[in-house]
Design goal:
159 residues; alpha+beta; 4-stranded mixed β-sheet; two-stranded antiparallel ribbon; 3 helices; 26% strand
């Protein structure tokens, strides 16, 4: 470039601010996103559409019978960000799966044994005379503290 009279030649410094995206997060050359699938898709194979940053629509598919567990991470090679000075080389699109489970009591209790027949057999638990059966309940940390009065044992009381 030709020098402009009256100005000193120097370096041109450009600062870029990266905006947050509602769907994708950038990690180097890779893009990361979360995808929610339902339990049926996680057990039987899924087909989900995903719109890319350049407005293409990808059909993300898993193999039938391939189980996707909550928190599983899969990737699509060459669907991430272009590599600096190699625009035809791209990073990966990394997908973190979240599995949506059905609500409680979604299936009538008389159908549960039918559903269980599709899964591996349960391991039977051997009870002894020392075994005490307890039931699970939902946990509410705020409700738990309402019933606590600070004394673990009768001997903890100050006389």
């Amino acid at each position: 470039a030709l020098p402009i009279s009256g100005l000193e030649p120097g370096d041109l410094i450009i600062t870029l601010d990266q905006k947050e995206h509602p769907v994708f997060q950038r990690q180097g050359r890779d893009l990361i996103t979360k995808m929610e699938i339902d339990l049926t898709d996680s057990l039987c194979g899924c087909k989900q559409s995903l719109k890319t940053l350049d407005n293409r629509v990808l059909l993300v598919t898993s193999k039938q019978g391939e189980v996707i567990r909550p928190g599983d991470v899969k990737c699509i090679p060459s669907e991430g960000m272009p590599v600096y000075r190699a625009p035809f080389e791209k990073g990966s699109l990394i997908i973190q799966f979240q599995v949506k489970f059905p609500e409680s009591a979604w299936l009538p209790t008389d159908k549960l044994s039918q559903l269980q027949s599709f899964f591996p057999a349960k391991v039977e638990f051997m009870t002894t005379e020392d075994t005490e059966e307890v039931k699970l309940t939902d946990f509410d940390p705020h409700a738990q503290h309402k019933h606590y009065n600070g004394e673990a044992y009768h001997e903890d009381r100050k006389s």
